[in-house]
Amino acid sequence: MEKLITHGLLVTLCISFFAVLTRPLALDAFDLWERLTFTEADSEASYGLPFAVVKPEPVPTQMLNRAQIRWLLIQNERLKVFHEAISPGNSEGQAAFNEMVREYNQRADYSFETADMEAAKEDVAQHLEFIRAAALDEVLSSGWEVPDSDKDEKKNDAE
């Protein structure tokens, strides 16, 4: 009986050790698979970035994958730009910003593998300028940088 317990513990330790050693290999394989199967349509759904970005479901305490972590990191950067660029006097822009914050907060209670978070941070960091510029462009193209009172004045001047 003692040999059986010792053998069982030894097998469990070997399996655990193997899992720890192969985890980085599995992440590398996932990364390679993602890059090989990434299409132009995926790029459009991923803010034009060269990797998958997936909005997580609003499920509390879920384990997120790398693509879902990227969504949260990207949204965090976008929200910083929106907060700075949207005029406090623009009700439409403020409403849109508040909705984005609500949507982000619904998904922000999560857990992750440390290696996935580090890889996602590296991916996003390489494209921060693009992400921020695209967010600012969204604000400007929506007219959210202009207070409502200025829009009304421009409308009256045109009439």
Helix content: over 70%
What is the first-to-last residue Cα distance? 94 Å
Q: How many individual β-strands?
A: 2
Q: How many domains, as an integer? A: 2
> Helical stretch count?
7
Oligomer: single chain
Query: How would a crystallographer describe the biggest sheet?
Result: 2 strands, parallel
Strand order of the largest sheet: 1-2
What ranges have pLDDT less than 50 throughout 5 or more consecutive residues? 19-23, 35-44
Tell me the layout of helices and strands:
Elements: H1 2-37, H2 40-45, E1 62-64, H3 66-85, H4 91-107, E2 110-112, H5 114-125, H6 128-142, H7 148-158
Parallel strand pairs: 1-2
Helix pairs in contact: 3-4, 3-5, 3-6
Account of the 3D structure:
This protein has helices at residues 2-37, 40-45, 66-85, 91-107, 114-125, 128-142, 148-158; strands at 62-64, 110-112. Helix 3 (66-85) crosses helix 5 and helix 3 crosses helix 6. It has 2 domains: 1-37; 40-158, no CATH class. With 159 residues, the chain is mainly alpha-helical. The radius of gyration is 23 Å and the shape is globular. The longest helix is centred in the N-terminal third of the chain and has 36 residues, at 2-37. It is 74% helix and 4% strand. Strands 1-2 form a two-stranded parallel ribbon.
Q: In a few lines, what is going on in this structure?
A:
With 159 residues, this protein is mostly helical.
What labels describe this entry?
single chain, 159 residues, mainly alpha, two-stranded parallel sheet, 4% strand, globular
